[in-house]
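Try this one yourself first.
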């Protein structure tokens, strides 16, 4: 009899185990979580001037993306809403999002088809595109003028392919990072450096004698990213962003961080 009862209990035990496992694997609703916690955990850069950079003076990460993250948080959760900042890098940002270590990424992240397979993007929040950085005395204004000249770029970025596309006769020297590429420009090893115009603006802002040349020659806007399936979170982020553009907060932040950068056309990014 005991064996019979044991046999009858087995299906119930398996059913309960399956149900609990299913509940445990159920995707968390990010929007409901941030509303309950009254906090949004943002994955942000701390190494990108003008967007997110650790300040030696204040000991805090400061920049356009940091201010925008705070403004969106207040818009979504109210004045008592809290924006918690988690420092990420280009390599760690998507893994940290996938592991739910952060709720949203705002980290100079270009919206691309490959990334859209991994994450869900908001509307664009910054009209980034590829630009050109040159010395102040340079006469270069367009990417086509780079033909038959040496251009400096960072290895492994889309910048290299874009230069070959728009200036097929240009010679491109590739470097390990932006610091090395800019040092090569200062040393006269090329006539221009190219990458995202926002990143070039950051370099120009701290290096007198250099400017952005002309307009962007590609359209590669940045978007905020959340985990796949979190449509409710994206809906509320987009709504908050629209409101900040409507009430003038967005343009105020653009001017705060990018006004005065030599060659940077604020009108191209203002809404």
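Now uncover the answer:
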């Amino acid at each position: 009899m005991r064996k019979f009862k044991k046999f009858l209990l087995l299906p119930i035990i398996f059913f309960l185990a399956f149900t609990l496992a299913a509940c445990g694997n159920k995707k968390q609703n990010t929007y409901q979580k941030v509303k309950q916690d009254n906090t949004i955990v943002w994955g942000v850069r701390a190494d990108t001037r003008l967007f997110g950079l650790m300040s030696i003076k204040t000991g805090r990460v400061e920049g356009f993306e940091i201010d925008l993250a705070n403004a969106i948080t207040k818009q979504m959760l109210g004045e008592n809403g809290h924006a918690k900042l988690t420092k990420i890098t280009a390599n760690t940002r998507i893994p940290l999002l996938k592991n739910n270590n952060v709720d949203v990424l705002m980290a100079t992240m270009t919206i691309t088809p490959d990334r859209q397979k991994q994450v869900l993007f908001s509307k664009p929040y910054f009209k980034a595109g590829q630009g050109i950085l040159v010395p102040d005395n340079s006469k270069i204004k367009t990417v086509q003028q780079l033909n038959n000249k040496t251009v400096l770029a960072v290895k492994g970025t889309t910048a290299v392919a874009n230069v070959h596309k728009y200036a097929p006769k240009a010679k491109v020297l590739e470097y390990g990072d932006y610091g090395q590429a800019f040092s090569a420009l200062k040393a006269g090893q090329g006539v221009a450096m190219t990458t995202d115009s926002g990143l070039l603006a950051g370099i120009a802002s701290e290096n007198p004698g250099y400017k952005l040349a002309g307009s962007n020659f590609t359209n590669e806007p940045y978007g905020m990213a959340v985990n796949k399936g979190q449509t409710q979170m994206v809906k509320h982020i987009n709504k908050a962003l629209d409101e900040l553009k409507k009430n003038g907060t967005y343009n105020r932040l653009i001017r705060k961080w990018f006004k005065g950068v030599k060659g940077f056309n604020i009108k191209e990014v203002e809404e």
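Discussion: The radius of gyration is 23 Å. The longest strand covers residues 119-126.
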